[in-house]
Amino acid sequence: MLALDIDGTLIGSDKKIPSFTGQEIRRVTADHAVHIVLITARGPQSTRIIEEALGVECSYATYGGSLVWARNDDGGFTTLGETPLEFGDVRTFVEEGQRLDVHIGVYTRNDWIVNKLDYWGLREARNTSIWPTLVSPALVEWSESEEPVFKIMFRGDGDQLTNLEKILRARDAEAFIHRMPHVIEIVSAHAVKLPAVASLANYLGYELGEIMAFGDSLSDVEMLEHVGVGVLMGNAAKSVQASHHVERTLSNDEDGIGVMLRKHFPTTAPFRT
């Protein structure tokens, strides 16, 4: 089984799958009966677009492992796990975001809802090829519905998000809060990539030792350290540290996945990147 993070790993900085990497994934899938899992912070809609570009049917672990779908032989999915955020936490987080006037994105099983179509919303739409649903200014009222929310993202200037981060962390909610320069990403505290991959492996009939996994961020490290072959991308930040047995490869813009697949699944086919 091959577990692939998407952003910073499978796709390059141009948001496309490098041609040699795509070629090698399709080769090992066909020649070695490898099952592909896309494990990502993205939602199912955006993940499906990447799957279509890859040209190989995949299982999904989306929203950082909050929503786990195993691909069936008939092309459909079996849901193995759903770990949404608590409804009360969703309302509190949305209220705080609206009070500080930052961009808010709320992600459900099938939709991405925003409070405004500003620079940040348009940028995310361009990056993911998904157009959001605008629910403004009533996003707080919408958050009271019974539809499960799997991820919330706040986007804005650094000072705004720094203030918001302090407030959100003080709430002591059952949530994992990940801060980046212009983004705060929130998923359930129980959404972790390794258990998601282990659940898929068990359902599909694989052992953890039969998995090769690629990632580039801190959220990937536990997964990389517990599978048969874990590979850290060359573009990973220096702060992302993994055990010595985790292999290192080239960056996502240098076919880091493709060259590592060629190493572990040798072939006499021409090597053309």
From TrEMBL:
NCBIfam families: HAD-SF-IIB. It comes from Leifsonia poae. The lineage of its organism: Bacteria, Bacillati, Actinomycetota, Actinomycetes, Micrococcales. Pfam families: Hydrolase_3. This is Haloacid dehalogenase. GO terms for molecular function: magnesium ion binding; phosphatase activity. One of its GO terms (cellular component) is cytosol. It comes from the Bacteria. InterPro entries: HAD-like_sf (IPR036412), HAD-SF_hydro_IIB (IPR006379), HAD_sf (IPR023214).
